[in-house]
Design a protein that fits this description.
The protein is of the alpha/beta class. It has a single domain, classed as Rossmann fold (3-Layer(aba) Sandwich), CATH 3.40.50. Helix content is 42%, strand content 20%. It contains six helices and seven strands. It has helices at 11-20, 43-53, 76-97, 123-142, 158-163, 174-186, and strands spanning 2-6, 25-30, 36-37, 56-61, 101-110, 147-153, 193-195. A seven-stranded parallel β-sheet has the order 3-2-1-4-5-6-7, sandwiched between helices. Strand 1, helix 1 (11-20) and strand 2 (25-30) form a beta-alpha-beta unit. Helix 3 (76-97) packs parallel to helix 4 (123-142). The chain is globular, with a radius of gyration of 16 Å. The chain binds NADP nicotinamide-adenine-dinucleotide phosphate. NADP nicotinamide-adenine-dinucleotide phosphate is lined by residues 6-13, 30-32, 38-41, 62-65, 85-86, 110, 112, 154, 156-157, 160. It comes from Trinickia violacea.
């Protein structure tokens, strides 16, 4: 398969590339490449990317930022940034894929545990993650028979916890999280929030 991976240079993206690149043609995308430049927060950049790529069999997105900060410190700009980036960035990635994804292809997005299990500082991240999941359920209905759409909801990733000075063992290693994206790719599922096991 020809697979576009947005966020290919990130913690999760690198493991997804590692997992899939021996069996598939992987196109790594992010703001700085490596194979394709795209800024999720800029719809024109997504349109331009698909024009350059033509048709792909699958799209995986392990990118998208949202502001993590206590509610009282969040600014209007923080809300606008987060909604435009991780939420609308992924929504637009799906919208713009129409006509560029092969019949029966798959799109796999990323949300996160904070939609269901909030902590102090997760107000915007929670909105964004829940919004991505709700969008996926609706988009899957409307794209039924054309493309499958799912979302992986990671909990805390071990490497991220370790970088924050917390216990690696309290999270899930990125290489294990990557397996959930493979489920979105190969299993005949759509409209699903794929848990990380
Ligand atoms: N790590 C965790 O514990 C965890 C837990 C739950 C959910 N998640 C979610 O999983 C996703 C990936 O997390 P991660 O830890 O792997 O992140 P990461 O290491 O910071 O990597 C982010 C990747 O996305 C790219 N990127 C950033 N902004 C972009 C934009 N506007 N347009 C296109 N590409 C962009 C980055 O490359 P460039 O800088 O070149 O653009 C990079 O490849 C995020 O949505 C995050 O919220 C992570």
């Amino acid at each position: 398969m020809r697979i576009l991976i947005v966020g290919a240079t990130g913690l999760l993206g690198k493991e997804i590339v590692r997992l899939l690149s021996s069996e598939h043609e992987v196109i790594g995308a992010s703001r700085n490449g490596p194979d394709q430049s795209v800024d999720l927060a800029d719809k024109a950049s997504i349109v331009s990317m698909y024009q350059q790529l033509g048709t792909v069999d699958a799209v995986i997105c392990a990118a998208g930022a949202a502001k993590f900060a206590p509610l009282e410190s969040l600014t209007d700009e923080d809300f606008a940034f987060s909604l435009a980036n991780k939420l609308m960035g992924q929504v637009n990635l799906v919208r713009c894929s129409v006509g560029h994804i092969a019949q029966g292809g798959s799109l796999t997005l990323t949300s996160g545990i904070l939609s269901l299990h909030p902590v102090t500082g997760s107000a915007v991240v929670g909105i964004v993650n829940a919004g991505v999941e709700a969008f996926v359920r609706s988009a899957a209905l409307e794209l039924h028979g054309k493309a499958r759409v799912n979302v992986v909801s990671p909990g805390w990733v071990s490497e991220t916890l370790a970088a924050m000075g917390q216990a690696y063992s309290a999270g899930t290693p990125a290489a294990v999280v990557a397996q959930a994206y493979k489920r979105g790719l190969v299993e005949d599922i759509t409209g699903q929030v794929i848990p990380v096991k």
